[in-house]
Specification:
- With about 600 residues, the chain is of the alpha+beta class.
- Helices cover about 35% and strands about 20% of the residues.
- The chain folds into three domains: about 5-145, Creatinase/prolidase N-terminal domain (Creatine Amidinohydrolase, Chain A, domain 1, 3-Layer(aba) Sandwich); about 160-300, Creatine Amidinohydrolase, Chain A, domain 1, CATH 3.40.350; about 300-440 and about 510-525 and about 545-595, Creatinase/methionine aminopeptidase superfamily (Creatine Amidinohydrolase, Alpha-Beta Complex), CATH 3.90.230.
- Strand 3 (about 60-65), helix 3 (about 70-80) and strand 4 form a beta-alpha-beta unit.
C-alpha cells in the first residue's frame, strides 16, 4: 500500500471505533528519540522518515508536524500524499494541541495508542478536550491492524557493560538511586527510559539502531528491584550480576498489569514526560504520585573519571578516522568516482579500522552542495550526488566505541567556492570558537551561553533553526538530556539544566541556505571546574574532539586575533594527538592543514 491507501485504511478503522482524530507519534513505548523498526508507525503512515514528527489523521484532513531540521525533507517526502506539512515554530502554524482543540468536534473522540504517548501529553490533551465534551480513547494501536509485514520486536542479546569502561557497579548506582528516592519521600520509582535503565543496570544491547540499549522497564523500591525484559536476552553473566541485588526478572509486557498491584499507601516517583500514558493510568488512583525528573538522568549525565578517560580515547580514535577520511577525500575527489553514499561508506570503513568500534551512533549525514542545506539530509540512491572538485561536502557523523560515544561535523572544501560561502564558513567557525573558549559562573544553563555561538550569524540577520548543542551519552544515546545549548526553551523538552562539571555537550553552529549550501562545524565540549573565588565557582570547557577544521574556507581577515590564536592552538593539539597514528604522507598533509594562520 502507498501512503494514500494507508491513510484510507486508518480512516476506516477510526470510523469503526468512532474516533474523530488519531495521533501517530514518533515514539516507542519508552518515549525514545530513536526507535526500533517495529515502532516506526509514523513513518509508515506518512512516508516521512525523519527522526522527529507527529501525524494527526482526521476524516477529511491529515497533517505532519516536524521541526526546522526537517522542513525541506518533509516537504519532499509528503509531496503527492494526503498528509500536509505543518512547520513547527513558524508564525501562524498551530501546534498539534491547538489543531486538535480547534478540529476535534464537540463530544468527539481523540484516539492514540496509550503506550506511545507520555502520561503528561495524554493527560493534558484529555483535560483540554474535556472542556468541549470530547474524550480520549487510548486502547487501540490502529496502525497494527493493516501494517503488513510489520517488523518484529528486536531479539538482540544484551551484555554486561564492564566497570573498566563505566567506572561504577550496578550495586553502587542502585544505592544512589535509592537514596534519591528516599529524599523525595517515595517508596516506588518507575523507570521506562531505555538509556536510564541501561546506565543503572550496566547493561547494553542492540534493540534500537545505533543506540546500545535494551527494551525494558524497571521498578525500584527501597528493598526490591524489578526488571521487565525478554529473559532470552540475558546471559549468565548478567543474571549473576543481577542476583547480587536480587533483581526480579519479569516478562517485558508484564509492567502494565504489575503496576495495577501498587498498594494504595505507596508513593510512586515517576517522570510523566517519559512514563507512557497506559502505564500511568494503570497505577491505582489511590497511590500518591510524585511527578519529577528521573534522578538517573542527572547521575548519568555527569561522567566519572573512568568514563572520561575512556571517552578521550574514543575521541582520539574517531579523530584518526575522520582525519584519514579528510585526507582521502581531498586527494581523490575528481580522480575517482565518489558519491555522497560512497563517501559515507568510506568514512565508516575508516572507523571500523579502530579498535573497540561497535557501530555508528546515528545515520551519517553526507550532503554535497545544496543537499547540505537540509540539516538532517540522508542520501538515497535517487538523490545521491557525485562529488566534484568544486563546492563543499558537509559530513555529520558519529561512532559507538566501547570507550564512548562520538558526534562530529566537518564541512570539507572540495574545490572553488564563492567569497560569500567563505564568509559564511568563517562566521560559523567564529561562533564555534567563541563558545569553546568561554569561562562562566556555575549556575549557567545552555541558554545563557548559546548567543556566543549564534552571535556571528545573528549579526548577519540569519539563524539556524535548531539548537547549538546537545548532551551526549557514554556508550549510549548520542542525544542525552538534561544539558544542551539553545537560545529558547522548548515546551516539553528538558535540555536546559545547569551545566555541571563532567557533562559533555556538542557545539555545532551552522548556516543553511536553501538551494545553495550548508555549513556546520561541530566539536564536543567537556565542562570542568576553573577557579573558585569571591565571585563563585567558575567553569570552562575542555574540547575533546580533534579533527582539522578546513582552512581552505577560512577568511582570517574577518577573525579577531583571539579567535585566530584559539584556532591555531586547537590545530596544534590536533596535530600532536592525531599525527602519531598516521602514515608519513598523511602526516605531511596534516601538518599543512593544521598550520597556523
Amino acid at each position: 500500500m502507498n501512503v494514500t491507501e494507508r491513510v484510507a485504511e486508518l480512516r476506516k478503522l477510526m470510523a469503526e471505533k468512532n474516533i474523530d482524530a488519531y495521533i501517530v507519534p514518533s515514539a516507542d513505548f519508552h518515549q525514545g528519540e530513536y526507535v526500533g523498526e517495529y515502532f516506526k508507525a509514523r513513518a509508515y503512515i506518512s512516508g516521512f522518515t525523519g527522526s522527529s514528527g507527529t501525524v494527526v489523521v482526521m476524516k477529511d484532513d491529515a497533517g505532519l508536524w516536524t521541526d526546522g531540521r526537517y522542513f525541506i525533507q518533509a516537504a519532499e517526502q509528503l509531496e503527492g500524499s494526503p498528509v500536509s506539512l505543518y512547520k513547527m515554530g513558524q508564525e501562524g502554524v498551530p501546534t498539534v494541541e491547538e489543531y486538535l482543540l480547534a478540529n476535534v468536534p464537540q463530544n468527539g473522540t481523540l484516539g492514540f495508542d496509550g503506550r506511545l504517548m507520555s502520561a503528561g501529553e495524554g493527560r493534558d490533551l484529555a483535560a483540554k478536550l474535556a472542556i468541549k465534551g470530547a474524550k480520549v480513547e487510548y486502547r487501540y494501536d490502529l496502525i497494527d491492524a493493516f501494517w503488513e509485514d510489520r517488523p518484529a520486536l528486536s531479539e538482540e542479546k544484551a551484555f554486561l557493560f564492564s566497570e573498566k569502561y563505566c567506572g561504577e557497579s550496578f550495586s553502587s548506582k542502585l544505592g544512589r538511586v535509592r537514596e534519591e528516592i528516599k529524599k523525595q519521600g517515595a517508596t516506588y520509582h518507575v523507570i521506562t527510559t531505555l538509556d536510564d535503565i541501561a546506565w543503572l543496570f550496566n547493561i547494553r544491547g542492540g534493540d534500537v539502531k545505533y543506540n546500545p540499549v535494551v527494551l525494558s522497564y524497571a521498578i525500584v523500591t527501597d528493598k526490591e528491584v524489578y526488571l521487565f525484559i525478554d529473559e532470552n536476552k540475558l546471559n549468565d553473566e548478567l543474571k549473576a550480576e543481577f542476583a547480587k541485588e536480587k533483581v526480579q526478572i519479569k516478562p517485558y509486557n508484564d509492567i502494565y498489569e504489575f503496576v495495577k498491584t501498587v498498594g494504595k499507601d505507596e508513593v510512586v516517583l515517576l517522570d510523566a514526560k517519559k512514563v507512557n500514558y497506559a502505564i500511568f493510568n494503570n497505577i491505582p488512583e489511590e497511590a500518591v504520585k510524585i511527578e519529577d525528573f528521573n534522578p538517573v538522568m542527572f547521575f548519568k549525565s555527569i561522567k566519572n573519571e573512568v568514563e572520561l578517560a575512556n571517552e578521550r580515547n574514543a575521541q582520539i580514535k574517531d579523530g584518526v578516522a575522520l582525519t584519514k577520511f579528510m585526507y582521502w577525500l581531498k586527494k581523490n575527489v575528481g580522480t575517482e568516482k565518489i558519491t555522497e553514499i560512497s563517501a559515507d561508506e568510506k568514512l565508516t570503513e575508516f572507523r571500523k579500522q579502530q579498535e573497540g568500534f561497535v557501530d555508528l551512533s546515528f545515520d551519517t549525514i553526507a550532503g554535497y552542495k545544496e543537499h547540505a542545506a537540509m540539516m538532517h539530509y540522508s542520501a538515497t540512491p535517487e538523490s545521491d550526488y557525485e562529488l566534484k572538485p568544486d563546492g563543499m561536502l558537509l559530513v555529520d557523523s558519529g561512532a559507538q566505541f566501547m570507550e564512548g560515544t562520538t558526534d562530529i561535523t566537518r564541512t570539507f572544501v572540495l574545490g572553488p567556492i564563492s567569497d560569500e560561502i567563505k564568509h559564511d564558513y568563517t562566521s560559523v567557525l567564529r561562533g564555534m570558537v567563541s563558545l569553546s573558549k568561554v569561562k562562566f559562573l556555575y549556575g549557567c544553563r545552555g541558554y545563557n551561553l548559546d548567543i556566543l555561538a549564534r552571535g556571528p550569524m545573528w549579526q548577519q540577520g540569519i539563524d539556524y533553526q535548531c539548537g547549538t548543542g546537545h548532551g551526549i551519552g557514554f556508550f549510549l544515546n548520542v542525544h542525552e538530556n538534561p544539558n544542551g545549548f539553545r537560545w529558547n526553551i522548548r515546551p516539553g523538552v528538558f535540555d536546559t539544566a545547569v551545566i555541571e562539571p563532567g557533562t559533555i555537550t556538542t557545539n555545532e553552529p551552522g548556516i543553511y541556505i536553501e538551494g545553495s549550501h550548508g555549513i556546520r562545524i561541530e566539536n564536543e565540549l567537556l565542562a570542568r571546574k576553573a577557579e573558585k573565588n569571591f565571585y563563585g565557582q567558575f567553569l570552562d570547557f575542555e574540547v575533546i574532539t580533534f579533527v582539522p577544521i578546513d582552512l581552505d574556507a577560512v577568511v582570517p581577515e574577518i577573525m579577531t586575533q583571539e579567535e585566530k590564536d584559539y584556532l591555531n592552538w586547537y590545530h596544534s593539539e590536533v596535530f600532536n594527538k592525531i599525527s602519531p597514528f598516521l602514515d608519513e604522507d598523511e602526516k605531511t598533509w596534516l601538518k599543512e592543514y593544521t598550520r597556523a594562520i
